Amino acid sequence: MLETIPALTEIVLQEGGGGSAAIPANAAAALAVGLGALGTGIAQRSIGAAAVGAVAEDRDMFVTALIFTALPETLIIIAFVTIFLVG
Amino acid sequence: MSARTSAGESNYEYVTARVRSRRAKLFDEDDYRKLLRMGTGEIARFMEESDYEAELNALGSRHSGVDLIENALHRNLANHFDDLLRFADGALYDYIARYLRQFDAWNTKTVLRGLYSDADREAVEVDLIRAGEFSDDRIDRLLSAGSIEEVVTLLEDTRFGDPLADAYDEYEERSLLVPLENAVDRAFYEGLVDGLPNEPDRATQQYVDFLESEIDFRNVRNALRLSRSGTDMDPAAYYIAGGRLFEESEIRSLVGNTDELVARLRESPYGDELEPLPAVGLSGVRVRAREDARGRERPGDRAGQGGRPRRRNDRGRTGDPMTDRPKPAGTQPLSMGEP
After folding, report:
1. CATH top class, domain A24-86
2. On chain A, which terminus has fewer CB atoms closer than 10 Å, C or N?
3. At residue B188, what are phi and psi to the nearest 5 degrees?
4. Residues of chain B with pLDDT > 90: what percent?
C-alpha cells in the first residue's frame, strides 16, 4: 500500500499539471474568507454572551459591549482583503 | 431528586459577566465604614438607596429595625441565587446548585427546628432563605407540615429523603433533633463533592478545592466543639467524608486530644490562616475562612449576608454539635444557631 504512494502522487501531479494549482486561486480566496469568518464567529460567540450579560445588568454598558463584540470583525475584514490580493 | 438536569453547554461567559456586574454593586469598604457608624434605621435608609430598594419596600410595612434589614438581606440573597440558577446551563448549573443546596439544608433544618420547638409558621417562615433548589411550592408545603414525620415524607424524593428517613427512627427513640439535623448536614456535605469530574481542569480544580475546604471547615468545627464539650458522643458520627484534612480513622483520637488536634490544624494547609491569640487552647485558635476564597458567609452566620465578607470566628463558642438544637419557640431567630 505504502509503496504505491510515490507513484500515485506522480500521477496526480501530472494530471493536475500544466501549471494550474490543485485549488484554483479564486476558490482559495473564498476558502480564506470562509475560514476567517469561522474564526470571527468563534470569537464572537463568547464575547457576545458576556456582552449580553453585561448589558442585561446595566444598560450603560451597551456601547462598550457593542465595541467589544465587533472587535473580532477585524479578522473577517483582513480575510476579505485576500480576495483583492488574489483576484 | 429535585435537581433539574440542565441540558446544553455551560454558559460561563454570560453568567460571569452578570455576576461580576452584580458584585460591583455590593457595598464596598467605604460603605462598610459608613454603616458601622449608623443605627438600624439609618442602615435601612442607606440600603433603600442601593440595590436593596425593592426588598426594603416590599418588607417595610411588615418588619422594622433589625428584622427588616435581615429579612431584606435574606430575600435579596435568595433572589440573586435564584437568578444564578436561572442563568446557568449545563455543567455550570450543577456546579452552582451543589453549593446552593446548603440553603435547602438550612431550610429543612429550620423547618424541623420550628416544628420541634412549636414555633408558629410566621416565625419559621421569616428565617427561611429561599435560595436553594427547593421550589416555593415545596417550601410552602414544608411550612404547612404538621409534624416532623410529615416533613420527612415530603422530602422523600430529594437527596435528604433517605438519610432523614433513616435518622427518623433514632429521633423517635430519643426524641432528640440532632440525628435528623446531622442527617441533613451529611447529605448536603457528602453531595457537595459527589460526582465532580475526576480529572478537573484548573478552573474546576479550584472550585473542587473550595468545596473540599468547606467540608474541612465543618469537620474542624465539629471536632473542636466535640473536643471542647468533652461529651462522649461518637465523633465518627459527625465526620463528613470528602475533605482533605482528616481521615475518619484519626478523628476519634484527635477529638480526644485537644493539643494534638490544634497541632494538626497548624500543620495543615490552613495553618497559615490561623492566627495565634494570646490565650492558648481552643479559644486561642481562630479558624478563619479564607476570605478571598469565599467572599460570603454561610446562612447561619448572620450579618455577612449583604455579600460583605466577614471573618469567620469560632473563638469563644463553647458549643458542641448539640448547640444546633432549636432555641425555645418565640424567642426570635432560629437562625441564631449555626446551620
Report:
1. mainly alpha
2. N
3. -65, -50
4. 2
Nearest to B100 by CA among B77, B71, B69, B123: B77
pLDDT digits (tens, 9 = 90+) for A6-32: 776 676 666 655 556 788 888 888 888
DSSP labels, B32-47: HHHHHT--HHHHHHHH
pLDDT of residue A70: 93
What the block records as the C-alpha cell of A6 is 510515490
CB contacts of B17 in chain A (<8 Å) are 49-54, 57
Residue B15: which of B101, B104, B96 has the closest Cα?
B96
Burial classification of residue B238, based on how many CB atoms lie within 10 Å of its CB (0-12 exposed, 13-18 middle, 19 or more buried): buried
- Nearest-CA distance A62 → chain B (Å): 13
- Segment (H or E) for A50: helix A25-57
The chain A residues in contact with chain B (CB within 8 A) are: 46-47, 49-54, 56-58, 61
Cβ density class B270-281: b for 16+ within 10 Å, e for less: beeebeeeeeee
Q: How far is CA B143 from the centre of its chain?
A: 19
Q: How deeply is B239 buried, as exposed, middle or buried, from its count of CB atoms within 10 A (0-12, 13-18, 19+)?
A: buried
Whole-complex ipTM = 0.70
Q: Which residues of A touch B11 (CB under 8 A)?
A: 49
Closest CA to B153 of B103, B96, B115: B115
User: CA triplet B231, B232, B233: central angle to 5 degrees?
Assistant: 95
pLDDT (tens digit, 9 = 90+) per residue, B86-145?
Answer: 888 888 888 888 888 888 888 888 888 888 888 777 778 777 888 878 888 888 888 888
> Is the Cβ–Cβ distance between B30 and B5 less than 8 Å?
no
For chain A, the structural domain boundaries read: 24-86
Is residue B245 within 8 A of residue B278, CB to CB? The reply is no
